[in-house]
Design goal:
Blueprint: E1 6-7, E2 13-14, H1 19-37, E3 44-49, E4 54-63, E5 69-78, H2 85-92, H3 96-106, H4 111-118, H5 122-136, H6 144-157
Antiparallel strand pairs: 1-2, 3-4, 4-5
Length: 158
């Protein structure tokens, strides 16, 4: 298996494997080991949790034209689970429904999806979304998750 090289946003390269790279390589090895044993898996899945996100890894074997087998690994970044609603109510002064909306916003839900999840109209969902954004002092719904986590982390460390 080839060594992984990480390219940072600064443009610098590092040969020190990250937790994600180690997990990708481990999953690829698992698939190839199963192929060697004669039990060819359709797909192997695993989740990796880091401090800022959850990553869903999925690997499957791929037979190449020359008869060799390699592993194809896909990586999907998922937002971490938002803080509990009760903690949000205390930390940010949100109502019960606003705390529920804030959790859904942090998970990437649209107003229509929020309305469906909560059993309210899309106009009510939009109204709650606007209130949450005002109380959290954010301009974009995508900022909600970061503010929720940062705000709770700051309160817990104080």
């Amino acid at each position: 298996m080839a060594a992984a090289v990480t390219r940072h946003s600064s443009g610098q390269e590092s040969d020190r494997p990250t937790e994600i790279q180690r997990s990708v390589e481990d999953l690829a090895r698992t698939v190839l080991d199963r192929v060697d044993e004669g039990t060819v898996p359709l797909r192997v899945r695993r989740e990796v949790f880091t401090s800022d996100a959850c990553y869903a890894l999925s690997a499957r074997p791929l037979r190449l034209p020359d008869g060799m087998v390699t592993a194809v690994v896909t990586l999907e970044r998922r937002a971490p689970e938002p803080p509990p609603a009760e903690a949000l109510r205390e930390a940010f002064g949100l109502t019960r429904k606003e705390a529920s909306v804030a959790r859904l916003l942090a998970r990437g839900f649209s107003n229509l999806a929020i309305a469906h999840e909560m059993g309210v109209s899309k106009h009510t969902a939009r109204h709650h979304t606007e209130n949450v954004m005002l109380k959290l002092c954010v301009r974009s719904r995508t900022q909600v998750g970061g503010v929720l986590r940062a705000g709770l982390d700051a309160r817990q460390s104080a």
